[in-house]
Design goal:
Blueprint lengths: L9 H11 L5 H18 L5 H20 L3 H7 L3 H6 L6 H17 L2 H18 L6 H14 L4 H20 L5 H22 L4 H25 L2 H12 L2 H4 L3 H6 L1 H10 L4 H7 L3 H14 L1 H6 L4 H10 L1 H15 L6 H13 L18 H17 L3 H17 L2 H14 L3 H24 L1 H10 L9 H10 L13 H21 L9 H27 L4 H31 L1
Helix pairs in contact: 1-2, 2-3, 3-6, 6-8, 7-8, 7-9, 8-10, 9-10, 9-11, 10-11, 11-12, 11-15, 11-17, 17-20, 17-21, 19-20, 20-21, 20-22, 21-23, 22-23, 22-24, 24-25, 25-26, 25-28, 27-28, 28-30, 29-30
Amino acid sequence: MADQPEQSSPVLQQLLLSLSQSADQPESSVSDLIDFLASISAQSDPGNQDSEATAFKTLTQLHHFISSQSDQAIFDQLQFELPKAVSEFGGVSGRCLEVVESIIDRFISMCGARDMLAVLGEALDSLNKKGADYGYVVPLLSGLSKVFLSLQRHHFEQVKQATRIIFKVLKGVSSELEDEAELQKMFDRAGGIANSIHAVCMKLEGGVYEKLSALLGLYVLEIVALVSMNFEASCSQAFLLQLSNFFPFCGFSYLGLITGSDVDKISRIVIGDDKDLYVDCFLDVKCGASVSVIWGQASNEVAVAAHEDLTVVKNELQNNQTKRWQAFGMLKHILASVTLPWELKKHAIDFLHSIRGGNISPCDEQSDFSTDMPGLFAALQAIQMVIMYTADTQLRKNAFDAFKWILADIPTCHRFDILKALITKSDSSSMIAILFDIVKGEMHKESCEKMGNDEVLREEHNAHPRSSLWTASILELVEFILRPPKGGPPSFPEHTDSVLSALNLYRYVLIAESRGKTNYTGVLSRSNLQKAYNEWLLPLRTVVTGIVAKNKNESDELAVGTLCTFNPVELVLYRCIELVEEKLKECT
């Protein structure tokens, strides 16, 4: 630590002298000192050598005074204001930060841990609300990590309360701070807090130990998520190596993390029904859990630090459908994130492909899987986001392959419901078109199987009608696109892809049912033919012909592009109209 500066500030010297003699008016002396420090802090600029030198001289002089004091009354006067005031110098320079942390350390040694926990927490909260320079965060987090070590009782309750403020500040600051070096300092100190909580756990036993170690687990997973969201993958690895070392102590396994069971277990212990605690602190723990495993996929060093063998985990997921579906649900937290780097999403998609296969018996279509469907639906929606927004062609292809095999992993009786929900919830015309093509492919596959062994499959279809895609729901899906719920024909050009795919599906069903002399979907009934003709096709023809006529005589590039885009729609639309008119004639 720096010695007493050769040239002390006379003003500060007088303020400190007044403070040591202020038995009659202590509040006035403290206020004057805080105002003086605030004036110096306001003028401090990390890029200005003179202002940095003034800040360092002021802090060193103050530190010398604090270190030489043994009068508890002085510390009692200053503890509620001085730590907060000096913390604002934390971002001025590395040597200023060192002195600030030493001043706070002195207060921790002279004042009660419980009081200092409140002081430092209040300082973090108030400076965060004030919008002060972010340099204050590092010394206050460092102070908290040391205070935790000095707590004598109510460890779980006090640490839990402090984590509310810690995460509030970490999330707020990390969303604004662009300086990666400063972010790294902040998360270094956040990692130090995890070390302190771990050290406290080692001194406890029984129920308190169980609760605090569970809190440590949630804390670590939340930090994993925040680190992964705020750093490129290449910069995150050092943090993940450090944090993964806590996993064995917290009772984490990669299998428990990727299926969510470990998270659910410790969440019940720590959070219970406290929804505010979950929202304030641990909103991203499931993301952190899944990211932790994907980091093990990306780096063998990280897996070794966690004492895990991913090969064993993948084998279990390949051969256990329930756990595999749970893993799909957990991975959505990575794939749907707008803040995680694409490299992690790429590793997540690779992980999905790595758990494909295994010795799974076909699931019983009569079993009730309804409780599993929301998680699978959310996972597929998350993969859709990767398909739509990645700029990496290979990642898009891999994501689409993963999408199709996860869909194939879903029992037939639920598959169409999932596809229908994906279509109705999507606002992307191109994605809807892809989903319609998948529906058409599934129907074609089922139709081919029926023709291959007609009698057996008909009996199975009659026994389990939900397992067939050839139902009236197909027409409802087509109507959703061709006659949107909000009324009127679909708008162009934004819905061109989805309209073309819906028309193609309608044409396919109409032809297939006619050739097979069946009417599973009801497409050939007179009422449905008239509805399609009058409510879907004719209004659509009016819109399409109007657009084509408007652009036909234009020669600019936009008009030519519009005509090229509408040509397939026009062709399929008129073919559908011809087919319906033929069927209506047959009905008369």
